[in-house]
Automatic annotation (TrEMBL):
Position of the signal peptide: 1-26
Example of a GO MF term: hydrolase activity
InterPro entries: Galactose-bd-like_sf, Ulvan_degrading_GH
The name this protein goes by in its record: Glycoside hydrolase
Lineage: Bacteria, Pseudomonadati, Bacteroidota, Sphingobacteriia, Sphingobacteriales
Keyword tags: Hydrolase, Signal
Pfam families, alphabetized: Glyco_hydro_106
Transmembrane segments: none
Superkingdom classification of source: Bacteria
Length: 849
């Protein structure tokens, strides 16, 4: 039986969804955050594997992703060659012990990155073209696996030759043959194959796919003046590479499915349509590299980070992974999270939370920390570390509070994974606009990098339009030509495997595949609402038969102009509202959000990653008058005042910069409609003399100080200046009865470096680790009159490492990159400023209302 191509894609998508949902639900807790787990030299032992997994479990981690990398000097005799007998034993032991603990295990299909290794010869490696003697010639790029582990070194596999991918995977078939090692998922890192733009059979593939011989238009292809014909030929060239890349990685995903494994795939960076490449994976994965420089008071951003060189995270880039999953109906969308958030020893949990919130608002729901490094129990401080920060492992200064971040992530992901996206708009992704821009091509190709998206995304109209849609509160997903082929129209709605959309919007584009324009016409005739931004596309793609195709293209355009289901608008956002697309005004109030649905009820995740909004009425496009709030930070529901404005629900949110919450439609609303907004908090300053006691830490320090003004404890003594650990502030404060008698009480600690556990009258109130550093005070904890306040603060390890690194430079004993700083230059603590520690400002207070 012949199955239509789009039907095959639909069936494959449903199969992938079923597999990921069944596997995750049956065996693994995906709501908990997972972590990258680097095996340095794979010098691992059963004893320390078990100990590490138990630590992960206790901390609230749901699973690990094993990445074998380069080793540690002095441990060469313990190195285990990748896929060797001892290595396979260690993997099998890890999976077995993890399953006992309820943890999942993923694994990179290789070592370091990208794919390649000892079974790839130079002839099988990545290629580029040269034109010599009137002929195209394939020559190796010479690229080898980066950060490879013992047994994993070698050339990078040709990414455009599916036969080479099959050959590469034979090595894994041999290693796993006869073994039952139930990995959850196999993994492919971001595309970092540089300069590769050819493959041995490229000319044959080009002719088969494009309908003409590239050699027949050599002069046009080699022309550098960017004529219209040159653009057409070079677009055909890039489209061919994109299709070959898709076919190549489909071999990998099919191989994984055959072996009952899911796939996690970072398709970004590829010289192809990343939406289509993401579609190959059961779990598409983006990454958050660097810090987003949020305008949140008290949030520290590492001043050494070079944004102009390394870029900053962008939710519009993250949406490529979540869009593919939304269109396909996949449950899990993952992210490499907090990579290089700041230098080693200088990262706080309060810096991590906003980055995680940005991912959640962009549609990500399966966080993988970047990351933790396997380190033997008896290894001296700070243990084995991978060069790229952040260290989420047990030697991190924030590790004792790490379960609090993990609980927060769990509380969020438990909702986000069990609800469906509720987006109204599909934004067509015109990749041909990128391919037509030869001025920004590198080696004749465009690599769609999430770090440097200025040329391929932000500079183009579709990027600007996407930004405008997000700023104006329209919820949307991107969709590719290939994905459009799988949609159906049902009662005017655009139906995909993942949901129903109200409108397709086509950003302004010069070129479009003729088949796509014809398909859009067909969808419009079936009842779809389609908006063209500014104008219809000018030209068909494809050099072959361009004149004939142009005539047919014009006929299709004329039919579109005559059809009422199409709108050509100079103001597409206004047209969207006219055609029923919902606009969330909360975006214009400076809030980040994602709107989802659960059992037909509206679910909003809202995060304040700005300093524009502090509290006020927020209009929602979905939901009835019965809503409930949920604070994932403390796992508590709360009532929300509600009113109506022009038949739209409005809720009152008290959401300070750095805070987040869920607002959920609920038939059992806690507060009825038309409830009044809350009164403002009043403040009572807790001015007192403090006793500050150092509690061991590094170095072992127990001195006590009496202070009358709160300031960084680094000013108190030479040892305090280098101390890392916990110090406890104790003071007696008088609180009047009119404050104690209020129902809503909170302690605001002001500036905290970096986390603080609070006790009042011997009763633990909680730990403040996220901005703003506030904790609710339970009833009957405060008393009128004297109250004893204890605040145990834990700082960074940065100040200690300034001293330790000079005295013990031997801790930096790793091969390859060893340890570098955030600028990828040799690790150097001399330039580090002393970081403030403790309660750094004299503004501790009680808030009451």
């Amino acid at each position: 039986m012949i199955i239509p191509k789009h039907a095959k894609l639909f069936v494959l998508a449903i199969a992938c969804i079923t597999l990921v949902q069944t596997t995750a639900k049956a065996q693994y807790n995906t709501a908990k955050p997972w972590t990258f787990w680097w095996w340095m030299g794979s010098a691992v032992s059963d004893k320390d594997i078990k100990h590490s997994l138990e630590q992960f479990k206790q901390a609230g981690i749901g699973g690990v992703h094993i990445i074998p990398i380069y080793g540690v000097k002095g441990y060469e005799n313990q190195f285990q060659p990748f896929l060797g007998a001892q290595w396979m034993h260690s993997l099998a032991y890890t999976v077995a012990e993890a399953r006992k603990l309820g943890l999942g295990v993923d694994m990179t299909t290789g070592t370091g990155w990208p794919f390649g290794g000892p079974n790839i010869s130079e002839a099988q490696s990545a290629k580029k073209w040269e034109y010599t003697g009137g002929q195209f010639k394939a020559v190796t790029t010479g690229q080898k696996v980066k950060r490879s582990a013992p047994g994993g070194a070698g050339f990078v596999v040709d990414p455009y030759d599916k036969n080479m991918m099959s050959h590469y995977l034979v090595r894994f078939d041999s290693a796993f043959a006869g073994k039952n090692i139930p990995l959850r998922s196999t993994y492919n890192d971001s595309y970092e194959v540089y300069g590769a733009n050819w493959t041995n059979n490229f000319l044959d593939e080009f002719k088969k796919r494009r309908g003409y011989d590239l050699r027949s238009v050599t002069n046009i292809f080699l022309d550098s003046t960017n004529t219209p014909l040159t653009r057409l030929v070079k677009m055909d060239y890039q489209q061919t590479l994109s299709e070959l890349l898709y076919d190549n990685y489909q071999v990998w995903t099919n191989w994984a499915t055959k072996h009952h494994q899911l796939t996690r795939y970072q398709a970004h960076g590829s010289p192809g349509n990343i939406l289509d490449l993401y579609s190959l994976a059961t779990i598409p994965e983006t990454e958050a590299f660097g810090s987003s420089n949020f305008n949140i008071p008290l949030l520290r951003v590492d001043a050494d980070y070079l944004a102009e060189r390394q870029g900053r995270p962008n939710p519009l880039m993250m949406k490529f992974a979540s869009s593919e999953a939304g269109v396909a109906g996949k449950k899990l969308i993952s992210s490499e999270t907090c990579t290089w958030l700041a230098n080693h020893f200088r990262v706080s949990l309060s810096q991590a939370k906003p980055q995680v919130d940005e991912l959640f608002a962009a549609g990500i729901n399966h966080v993988f920390y970047h990351g933790t490094t396997y380190s033997p129990q008896d290894e001296k401080y700070p243990g084995w570390l991978f060069y790229a920060s952040v260290n989420f492992g047990p030697t991190s200064h924030f590790y004792k509070d790490f379960p609090l971040l993990n609980k927060y992530v769990y509380n969020c992901q438990n909702i986000l994974q069990n609800s469906k996206p509720d987006n109204d708009v599909l934004v067509y992704f015109p990749i041909q606009e990128i391919w037509a821009d030869q001025a920004t091509a590198n080696a004749g190709i465009h690599q769609l990098d999430v770090h440097h998206y200025e040329n391929w995304f932000a500079a183009h109209r579709y990027g600007k339009l996407s930004k405008e849609l997000a700023q104006k509160g329209f919820s949307f997903d991107y969709i590719s030509d290939r994905q459009l082929n799988g949609v159906k129209i049902n009662a005017g709605k655009v139906q995909t495997a993942g949901g129903a959309y109200k409108v397709i919007i086509v950003p302004q584009t010069q070129y479009m595949p003729p088949a796509t324009l014809q398909h859009l016409l067909a969808l419009g005739k079936q009842g779809a609402t389609i908006i063209f931004d500014q104008n219809l596309p000018h030209y068909p793609m494809g050099y072959a038969g361009f004149k004939e195709n142009s005539a047919a293209f014009e006929q299709t355009k004329a039919a579109i102009n005559a059809d009422k289901h199409f709108t050509i608008s100079p103001d597409p956002t206004a047209a969207l509202a006219q055609h029923g697309a919902s606009q969330e005004m909360i975006a214009e109030q400076g809030l980040s959000f994602i709107r989802k649905s659960q059992n037909g009820k509206a679910v909003y995740f809202i995060s304040n990653l700005n300093n524009k909004f502090h509290g006020g009425w927020v209009k929602l496009s979905r939901g009835s008058g019965n809503v409930v709030g949920y604070d994932p930070l403390n796992n508590k529901k709360f009532g929300i005042p509600v009113r109506y404005s022009k038949n739209k629900i409005e809720v009152y949110l008290s959401l300070l910069p750095g805070q987040s919450c869920f607002v959920t439609e609920d038939a059992k609303g806690i507060i009825p409609a038309n409830a009044k907004e809350p009164t403002a908090y009043q403040s009572y300053a807790l001015n007192t003399n403090w006793k500050l006691q150092f509690m061991g830490g590094r170095p072992d320090y127990h001195k006590t100080f009496k202070i009358d003004t709160l300031q960084s404890w680094t000013t108190l003594s030479d040892t305090a200046a280098i101390y890392t650990g916990t110090a406890k502030y104790t003071g007696t404060v008088n609180i009047p009865a009119n404050v104690v008698g209020k129902k809503d009480l909170m302690i605001d600690l002001g500036t905290v470096n970096e986390s603080a556990t609070v006790k009042i009258n011997g009763k633990t109130v909680g730990t403040a680790w996220a901005i703003p550093f506030r904790l609710s005070i339970p009833a009957n904890v405060l008393v009128a009159g004297k109250n004893t306040l204890e605040v145990a603060v834990t700082n960074l390890s940065s100040n200690y490492m300034k001293m330790y690194d000079k005295q013990h430079p031997e801790w930096r004993k790793f091969y390859d990159a060893n340890i570098v700083d955030i600028t990828y230059t040799p690790f150097n603590v001399d330039k580090w400023q002393v970081m403030p520690s403790g309660l750094s400002t004299n503004n501790v207070r009680i808030l009451y209302r």
